[in-house]
Design goal:
This protein is α/β, with parallel strands linked by helices. The chain has a domain of 116 residues: Orthogonal Bundle (Arc Repressor Mutant, subunit A), CATH 1.10.10. The protein is 26% helix and 15% strand. The protein contains five helices and eight strands; from the N terminus they run βααβααββββββα. A four-stranded mixed beta sheet has the order 3-4-2-6. A two-stranded antiparallel ribbon has the order 1-5. It is elongated. The two termini are 34 Å apart.
């Protein structure tokens, strides 16, 4: 019996029905690039069957032109394989919501939502600061309390009229509580 730590994460699986596989096989013969695109998107969906990605990144991942991606998306829309929700006014970045009767991630119940969350895929090539990526200063992190720790302000305090806290009357400083899962993650 596998222990819980050895189980694959829920997000690493997508599921399909046999009829969907047969339809997918037919799509491969009729529109191979559309079938490839559907597989690429299915591999990246989040828990609510959606992924946000630009057409340029899709084209790069597939090794095809942007036009080929647009044509493949139209085929998938016409065949009711997915819905497209435009992000911004140009239509080059979209949320692709996969038909949950074809492919889904997670439990089958509760997947029909009018609001959805999505995995967001971005390419470094599309970022205006692409030359600086990887060399930015680290983001500020909230202080973290480990189990059993208390918040105790320290240091000399500010010049009068401020004074350090009296013992037992320390202010409650905001911080996030560290869970046991967080303790197992590497710290930056």
């Amino acid at each position: 019996m596998k222990n819980i730590a050895e189980k694959k994460s829920i997000g690493s699986w997508v599921q399909t029905e046999r009829a969907a596989h047969e339809a997918w096989a037919a799509l491969m013969g009729q529109a191979p690039q559309a079938a490839r695109l559907m597989h690429l998107l299915a591999a990246r969906v989040g828990n609510h069957n959606a992924v946000v990605i630009s057409q340029k990144t899709l084209a790069s991942l597939m090794g095809v032109s942007d036009r080929t991606v647009r044509t493949a998306v139209k085929v998938l829309q016409a065949g009711n394989w997915l819905e497209v929700r435009q992000i911004g006014d140009r239509g080059t970045v979209n949320a692709y919501v996969l038909n949950d009767r074809v492919v889904w991630s997670g439990a089958r119940d509760g997947i029909r939502h009018s609001l959805f969350s999505a995995a967001v895929v971005i390419s470094s090539a599309e970022q205006p600061d692409k030359d600086a990526l990887g060399s930015q200063p680290a983001l500020q992190r909230l202080p973290t309390l480990y189990p059993g720790e208390q918040q105790l302000p320290s240091g000399p305090g500010m010049p009068p009229p401020s004074q350090p806290s009296l013992y037992g009357m320390e202010p409650d400083i905001p911080a996030r509580q560290m869970s046991s899962e967080d303790m197992n993650e590497p710290h930056q």
